[in-house]
Amino acid sequence: MLAVNPMDSASVLAAFGALGVLVVVFAESGLLVVGFFLPGDTLLFPAGVLCAGSAQQPPRLALWQVLLCAAVGAVAGGQVGYLIGRHGGRALLARTSGDRVRHAVTRAERLLARYGYGKALVIGRFVPLLRTVLHPVAGALGVPARPFTLWQTVGGVLWSQTLVLAGYTLGASVPHIDDYLLPLVAVVVVVSLLPLLPEALRARRKRRDSSD
């Protein structure tokens, strides 16, 4: 029996290849709490690396399949998340447990209010945790279906294709880079968390000011 850890990108890619990319990206793009525990950035980038072959080793994944599955998973997951929020509403979001989920919901609401539908749905795709709740929040807030579909598709395609192609470019440029997938995943995690840094600093400054 094949044991697969859905939170481990290497395990998912080894077991399911491009299909695993589709399923995980779909879940991470809108299935609320489930998506919080699944790799997104840390799956797409290594998948791109494994699409690059060398003189010594052929590609382990087909680039066109990974690109297609990543795009389909991102866009379909975003739409399902929107429908969950639209039909479940704020009551569903209020029932979600965990401080991380509630905090991400609040950030998603602020992002939509500050930047509007287009910018928020594109920017939010590139922020971990936020992209999982952004689409249900948009549905719960009553964002119109047509602009939502347009901009979440733009954001989903940009995010998914950029990460896969970045991994592919690195894999094609650096020999045996796939031997260092674990350190690469760690780098991707750090880079993907950078958008959260300014807000974390503001929150820390606010807490310090309030305690003075």
Model description:
It is a multi-pass membrane protein. The protein has 212 residues and is an all-alpha fold. The protein is built from 10 helices and no strands. The radius of gyration is 18 Å and the shape is globular. The mean pLDDT is 79.
Inertia-based shape: globular
> Structural class of the secondary elements?
mainly alpha
How many helical elements? 10
Q: Helicity, in percent?
A: over 70%
Determine the mean pLDDT: 79
Strand content: under 5%
According to DSSP, the number of beta strands is 0
Largest sheet, described in full? none
Q: Note poorly predicted spans.
A: none
Element order: H for helix, E for strand: HHHHHHHHHH
**End-to-end separation:** 58 Å
Task: Report the radius of gyration as a whole number of Å.
Answer: 18 Å
Considering the chains and any ligands shown, give keywords for the structure:
212 residues, mainly alpha, 76% helix, 0% strand
What's the layout of helices and strands?
Blueprint (H helix, E strand, L loop, with lengths): L8 H8 L1 H11 L4 H4 L4 H10 L12 H33 L3 H27 L4 H11 L4 H29 L7 H13 L3 H15 L1
Helix pairs in contact: 1-2, 1-4, 2-5, 4-8, 4-9, 5-7, 5-8, 6-7, 6-8
In short:
Its main location: membrane. The protein has helices at 9-16, 18-28, 33-36, 41-50, 63-95, 99-125, 130-140, 145-173, 181-193, 197-211.
